[in-house]
Amino acid sequence: MDRKEEKLICYLHSLPRHEVSVDFAERVMEVVERKSRPYAFFKKRVVAALACAFLLVMFVTSWPIFPRLEISRYFGYRKIELVFYSPVQNPKTVAVAGDFSDWNYLDMEKVKENCWKITIRLRPGKYAYGFLVDGKEWVPDPSAPRQIADGFGNLNSVLVVDGLNGE
Amino acid sequence: MHPQEDREIVREVLNGKKELFALLIHRYEDKIFNYIYYMVKQKEEAEDLAQTTFVKAFFALRQYNRAYEFSTWIYTIARNVCLDYFRKRKKEDVDLSLNVTVSEDGDTEMGELIEEDHSPDPLRTILNEELRGKIEKAIERLPVKLREIVVLRHLEDCSYEEIAQIMDLPVGTVKSYLHRARKKLKEWLEEYLE
Looking at chain A, which terminus has fewer C-beta neighbours within 10 angstroms, N or C? Predict the structure, then answer.
């Protein structure tokens, strides 16, 4: 480094340092505060909207929101036990079909002589159903208080599910 | 410098005590302002840009890597704010490339800027007004990158390593640019260095 360069560096170091106005920090903090508020407000609104959307999805749709925890059954579904006392003596098989199964047959379990049962999970609502005895005889539920014509000359029983424990 | 304390304050601010950010502002406001001032050469603009720097720093605080000095980080933000400013203004006399030589600018506000200096440091009063104006004008004539390096090294007293971090350049390049900048300054200030 030559003498001229040393002198230059000395001059550079001697240049004046400028200072900000006294209330600089205060003004910066005011801007920070002002800019923070809309963000916090926006964040709260987003959280609230997401919570509403989640509750809507949980209660209105039948999507399995918590399939592993099976929480949805406590909110949307009711456990219903259908018991069938067969008017036909000693049937070999009994199945149930209804709106809830898209009229597919669900095999029932034999509890004792002439008594068959099945447990299904249903959302609150009104369902038509009936029993198929020995794979050929369609029998409405003798214990159901309401029956409805199926339009083909037979009768279906009506199941109404409401309340926490179902019917 | 207060490296450990800076990190401690950052941690506290991130934990919700955002009012503590004012401590960091007080600590670095003059340095950042001075750096920006020598870059843009306009006091009011410099103060606005310094404010923008601190506001940006506050909202980017989660991105601050505590392995590095807070001072280096805040200089990096100030630098980006300056570069944005230059881009926005599209100043014809601001050369963002090192290849283009220098801009020929008038010495309009030099006098009043010198009068605004109330530095108590006796060393700084050694320079008479004329010489001070010539040096500031010469710094202003440097291309932006060279000007930045001169300001960081000789006015802000940053180390080569700190400048390399701030400007994201290898240390060797910083030294080389600084050499080029001094050479230019020597050339322009020849008569005052005899």
Answer: N
What digits encode the pLDDT tens for the residues B64-122? 988 888 999 999 999 999 999 988 886 555 445 444 444 433 333 333 333 333 444 44
Q: Is A20 on the interface with B (CB under 8 A)?
A: yes
A15 vs B132: CB contact, 8 Å cut-off?
A: yes
Confidence band of B5 (pLDDT split at 50, 70, 90): confident
Which whole number is the average pLDDT over A18-31? Answer: 90
Which domains does chain A possess?
1-76 (no CATH), 78-161 (2.60.40.10)
Q: Which domains does chain B have, with CATH numbers?
A: 1-93 (1.10.1740.10), 95-194 (1.10.10.10)
The H or E element containing residue B193 is none
The answer to whether A31 contacts chain B (CB < 8 Å) is yes
Write out the DSSP string of chain A: --HHHHHHHHHHHTSPPP---TTHHHHHHHHHHHHHHHHHHHHHHHHHHHHHHHHHHHHHS---SSTTTT-HHHHT-EEEEEEEE-SSSS-S-EEEEEGGGTT--EEPEEEETTEEEEEEEE-SEEEEEEEEETTTEEE--TT-S-EEE-SSS-EEEEEEE-TTT--
